[in-house]
Design goal:
2 domains, 3-stranded antiparallel beta sheet, 8-stranded mixed beta sheet, 42% helix, binds zinc ion
């Protein structure tokens, strides 16, 4: 809506007379102020003309409201002054239609999240004997995931290989990555958002590397969500660059994310926000609740405010795109910790299952215990977050998330 204010200052006329300048009133005025007759005639004529002009203008345009106000007071030389003010508000149709169109577009993209695909990915991931980082199966899992990511993501898909020493042994491990858009630090005009989930699983006893560990909620659910986000976003022309990362070795103490942060620092990769999904398929707190994990304290404190901003941003859009209510909680031991430690703005989505899912780190963390409708809603919330951040201009994202160079 565009509003314009027209003001005119007249002297020696009572405001009521401005509205109904009848012939009879003219006469009274002229009798009262014979010496000023010419000025009065002219003023009354001008005001009448002014009002007719406004009414014509309003009827020809998309005027949504007209407010007329006046104020009187004593001006110089003891003359009665009248300030006559007309406020016209125009309905800026093009602007309104544009924002309606954008909102409709976001909704139509969010609606593309497909429950069947999410379910299939979870079933497949959980069908591996285990995804334990030290298991005989983890390499197969990594290659299978690379193919899946390749089939959905619009960008280069590759492994980030790293070697992890542990208890006298060395493990060759793989993070799996897809870059949608540039990752260059020279790209100052676009923001870089990393969306992640860890793909490894474990049993209660972390040393049981080859025991059955389906890890459906922890964290096939997060991996399925990331794959679905990559699929839907591959068809969207985004302003911001997105990197999808599937981490290895989270259960051993964030091995994959620690190695990846080091790799990013070495390569001066741009990064403005990390959104992590860890356990998003078991509605521990009820079907309508999801936890948004934000950073408070930890290693760096200057980034806290931005993490909370991001959390609040998510909790403001939740009801528009999903049936979820997002509640903020400080983050636990997740893959966000290594990014936080270098000052990044981080945020996580979580179902509360690390405390409340009875199948946590057990052989019973199977796909049938999950609620796919719930997972679909959480995935939609993550997608709506990315799309709504993309609508903001660069300055707004700056003040919301800050920018810290690696
Ligand atoms: Zn986990």
């Amino acid at each position: 809506m565009i509003c314009a204010n027209f003001e005119t200052l007249l002297s020696q006329i009572h405001p009521l007379r401005l509205l109904i300048p009848t012939y009879h009133e003219h006469k009274i005025l002229l009798l009262r102020y014979p010496l000023l007759s010419m000025t009065l005639r002219l003023q009354i004529y001008l005001v009448s003309y002014f009002m007719i002009m406004i009414i014509n203008f309003a009827s020809l345009s998309n005027t949504t409201s007209i407010m007329i106000a006046y104020a009187t007071g004593n001006g110089n030389n003891s003359h009665n002054m009248c300030l006559f003010s007309v406020n016209i508000c125009l309905n800026d149709q093009s602007q309104q239609e544009k924002s309606k169109e954008t909102a409709g577009l976001v909704h139509s993209i969010v609606d593309q999240v497909n429950s069947t695909r999410l379910k299939n990915w979870i079933d497949n991931l959980s069908s591996f004997q285990t995804r334990h980082t030290k298991s005989d199966y983890v390499e197969d899992v990594a290659y299978w995931l690379r193919n899946e990511l390749q089939s959905v993501c619009n960008g280069r898909v590759y492994f980030h290989n790293f070697t992890q020493p542990d208890q006298g042994k060395s493990y060759g491990l793989k993070n799996i990555i897809c870059d949608q858009g540039s990752t260059s630090v020279d790209d100052k005009n676009h923001h870089h958002i990393l969306i992640s989930a860890h793909y490894d699983s474990r049993m209660g006893d972390i040393n049981q590397s080859n025991a059955r560990a389906p890890g459906a909620d922890d964290n096939a659910s997060g991996v399925a969500a990331v794959l679905e986000l990559a699929r839907v976003l591959s068809k969207v022309d985004l302003k911001n660059n997105i990197q999808f990362v599937l981490f290895s070795g989270e259960e051993q103490g964030q091995w994959g994310s620690v190695a990846y942060v080091k790799h990013q620092q070495t390569n001066s990769t741009k990064l403005d926000l990390v959104l992590n999904l860890d356990m998003v398929g078991y509605p521990s707190l009820g079907l309508g609740k999801v936890i948004v994990e934000y950073d408070l304290g930890n290693k760096i404190t200057t980034n806290d405010v931005y993490s909370k901003n991001a959390g609040q941003f998510i909790s403001q859009i939740d009801s528009e795109y999903t049936n979820l209510e997002a509640s903020l909680r400080t983050l636990g031991k997740t893959d966000l910790i290594p990014f936080e430690a270098i000052g990044k703005t981080v945020i996580g989505l979580h179902d509360g299952g690390s405390e409340l899912n009875p199948n946590y780190h057990s052989v019973s963390d199977t796909p049938d215990t999950l609620d796919i409708g719930y997972l679909t809603s959480v995935t939609k919330l993550a997608l709506a977050t990315i799309l709504n951040l993309d609508k903001l201009d660069i300055g707004q994202v700056y003040s919301l998330l800050s920018i810290t160079a690696l």
